[in-house]
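Tip: read the tokens left to right.
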């Protein structure tokens, strides 16, 4: 597949990863407060952190199934494993590269098996994004009512939904140029099929719910009361901060958004920052694991079966060892 990225993109991603690795190796470079917050992670419950990782993985699965449903409505049927692998690779790249590079790669991977290529896939991704915006708007409304989040994102979300509805109606009634028509295939198909639209919206809703569950698990891991209530405020703050990620996995920005959201609810700054760091770390590690799993699945034609089996076995043993080392000792 032809590379869609210049040397500048690769250098930017490499420098971002180098800076992130340096900061992880020497937390003191970030200041005393951050060092104390990282030290506070020692009191976190490993079982809850593992539960958060599983929920984050579920969010990726729901995203893949939402894309699959939108593309199926647009005339491109895909298997669940195939869609999950292509989507997962994008998740993994987004975790280690800034500026949604993984999302662009994801569109390219789906475009290789789509009848309309990347144009149709981009339109399907936009259609899924609109359904996510609806559920995000509901969470923002909760945060705005609590006085933690501003109300203006609700107006922006409403404008996006209205524009999407107008685009769908236009695509159904007017003959459009070829490229624009390819982009709007999914919008037209979903507007014509309430059932397909309901399936996409349901997967988007389930994805939002699993992310809230992941956030609640991380909050519970740090021993904060009312974790679900905190998560309902935390998730929209993180999503708003991720509109344009400038760091790999939006690390730093996401942690700050979590800390600010929790601080507005009266939680101490040190504890709030610990939650933010834990949220970013668990989400990033889960995304990398999902990306590696996706790469393993998609490399089926390039790797011999015994190589894939050995890699899957090694990964399973590694996960089992990590789980046993972190969760079982406190229980025993």
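Filled-in amino acids:
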């Amino acid at each position: 597949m032809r590379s869609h990225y210049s040397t500048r993109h690769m250098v930017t991603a490499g420098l971002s990863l180098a800076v992130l690795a340096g900061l992880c190796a020497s937390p003191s470079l970030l200041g005393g407060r951050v060092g104390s917050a990282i030290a506070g992670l020692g009191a976190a419950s490993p079982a809850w952190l593992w539960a958060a990782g599983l929920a984050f993985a579920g969010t990726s699965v729901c995203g893949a199934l939402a894309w699959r449903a939108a593309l199926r409505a647009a005339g491109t049927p895909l298997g669940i494993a195939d869609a999950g692998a292509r989507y997962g690779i994008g998740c993994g790249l987004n975790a280690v590269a800034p500026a949604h590079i993984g999302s662009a790669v994801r569109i390219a991977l789906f475009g290789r098996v789509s009848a309309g290529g990347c144009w149709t896939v981009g339109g399907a991704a936009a259609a899924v994004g609109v359904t996510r915006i609806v559920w995000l708007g509901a969470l923002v409304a909760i945060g705005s009512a609590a006085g933690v989040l501003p109300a203006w994102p609700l107006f922006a979300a409403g404008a996006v939904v209205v524009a999407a509805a107008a685009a769908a109606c236009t695509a159904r009634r007017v003959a459009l140029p070829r490229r624009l028509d390819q982009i709007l295939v999914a919008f037209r198909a979903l507007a014509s099929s309430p059932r397909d639209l309901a399936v996409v919206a349901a997967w988007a809703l389930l994805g939002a719910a699993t992310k809230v569950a992941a956030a609640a698990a991380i909050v519970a891991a740090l021993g904060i009361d009312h974790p679900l209530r905190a998560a309902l405020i935390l998730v929209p703050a993180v999503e708003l901060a991720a509109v344009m990620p400038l760091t790999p996995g939006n690390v730093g920005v996401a942690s700050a958004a979590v800390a600010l959201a929790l601080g507005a609810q009266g939680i101490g700054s040190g504890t709030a920052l610990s939650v933010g760091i834990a949220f970013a770390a668990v989400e990033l590690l889960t995304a990398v694991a999902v990306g590696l799993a996706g790469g393993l699945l998609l490399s089926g034609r390039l790797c011999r079966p015994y190589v894939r089996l050995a890699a899957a076995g090694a990964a399973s043993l590694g996960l089992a060892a990590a789980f046993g080392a972190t969760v079982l000792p406190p229980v025993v």
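The two ends are 50 Å apart (CA to CA). The chain is about 80% helix and 0% strand.
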